[in-house]
Design a protein that fits this description.
39% of the residues lie in helices and 17% in strands. The chain is α/β, with parallel strands linked by helices. The protein has 3 domains: 50 residues, Orthogonal Bundle (434 Repressor (Amino-terminal Domain)), CATH 1.10.260; 133 residues, Rossmann fold (3-Layer(aba) Sandwich); 130 residues, Response regulator (Rossmann fold, 3-Layer(aba) Sandwich). Strand 3, helix 7 and strand 4 form a beta-alpha-beta unit. Helix 1 packs across helix 2 and helix 10 packs parallel to helix 11. The N and C termini lie far apart (75 Å). About 4% of the residues have low confidence.
Length: 341
């Protein structure tokens, strides 16, 4: 009878990851725990079990680029995601590693390809992308003792390897730019609420508004979950109101393009009637009409540094910093100007 790791783990009273480590022969599994697993597998008549001595510790030379499964549902900015993947692949291959791209869940069951890779100990290390606020402890990776580096998010109080940008500063400089042009009626179509960058950019926005003693209109602070179609409908509705915002901050450049389209669909112009600013500095943003003002995030640099950091961890090299913070940069183009009405 073939049984799964979950059944063996339940019988032995251990986690699925512990069973997986025992099967791979990893020495960090306590001998008493290994014996409990062996007895559980015998009881369940698990045919694939072999004594641990037959398994030799191995290196796969494979890194995982993993994203929580739920985050994939919010959609991806193809320009940014593509540049991150391309950079990770190039940096990994230069160091002699391959890359497996997949999603993962935080549950005990094997639902995704990433779950299977983790359960089978197929990865030497992991790069985590688009993590959520709920992913604070990364217990699954700690339990596996699997080295990991987080891309795009900073952990100021925790000993996680991470490379990211100051997202409070992102929100702050975007808002300060609009304030410096004379805008006061500023709206913010933000990203998913369960992402740290979303909350931090909103914090930066509020700080900049407080400094000018301007109370933001809460109905203009909305979440579109990185959905351009949703952002289009929101902005389109605002343009029909008696007193629309004179400037809109978008969750990312892709959302900003949709907002520009919504304004133009109403017969208005950007930036004469409404200024629009995004985040990321996607490659296409310099070529939309009008060219988009945006806050540039060095995604390629983040991806390269994170991959190099993970390789250094695997090679047990000395790492001077485990938190690397990159500064955002305001790129002013033609989608922002002083309010025209």
């Amino acid at each position: 009878m073939r049984v799964g790791l979950k059944q063996v783990a339940k019988r032995a009273g251990v986690s699925v990851s512990t069973v997986s480590r025992a099967l791979s022969g990893q020495v960090r599994v306590d001998p008493r725990t290994r014996e409990r697993i062996r007895l559980a597998m015998e009881t369940l008549n698990h045919r694939v079990y072999r004594p641990a001595e037959e398994f030799a510790p191995r290196t796969t030379h494979l890194l995982g680029f993993l994203m929580p499964e739920e985050m994939h549902d919010f959609g991806l900015d193809g320009s940014v995601y593509g540049s991150v993947i391309d950079t990770v692949r190039a940096a990994a291959e230069q160091a002699g590693f391959g890359i497996a791209i997949a999603t993962y869940t935080n549950g005990p069951d094997i639902v995704t390809v990433g779950d299977r890779l983790l359960a089978q100990n197929s990865l030497d290390g992991v790069l985590l992308y688009r993590t959520r606020l709920s992913d604070e402890s990364f217990e699954r990776f700690r339990d596996l003792k699997l080295p990991f580096v987080v891309i795009g998010r900073l952990f100021e109080r925790d000993a996680f390897h991470c490379v990211g940008v100051n997202n409070r500063q992102c929100g702050y400089i975007a808002t300060r730019h609009l304030l410096s042009l004379g805008h006061q009626r500023i709206a913010f179509i933000n990203g998913p609420r369960n992402l740290a960058p979303t909350q931090q950019r909103l914090d930066g926005f509020r700080q900049a508004m407080r400094e000018e003693d301007i109370a933001p209109r809460e109905e203009w602070l909305v979440d579109c979950k990185y959905d351009p179609a949703g952002a289009f409908e929101i902005a389109h509705g605002w343009m029909e109101s008696a007193e629309p915002p004179t400037a809109i901050i978008a969750a990312n450049d892709r959302v900003a393009w949709a907002i520009i389209h919504a304004v133009q669909k109403k017969g208005l112009t950007v930036p004469t009637d409404v200024s629009v600013i995004g985040f990321d500095d996607a490659a296409e943003s310099a070529h939309v009409t009008p060219p988009l003002t945006t806050v540039a995030l060095e995604w390629r640099q983040m991806a390269e540094i994170a991959t190099q950091m993970l390789v250094e961890v695997l090679r047990r090299q000395t790492i001077r910093q485990i938190h690397i913070e990159l500064e955002p940069k305001l790129v002013v183009r033609q989608s922002t100007a002083a309010p025209g009405r």
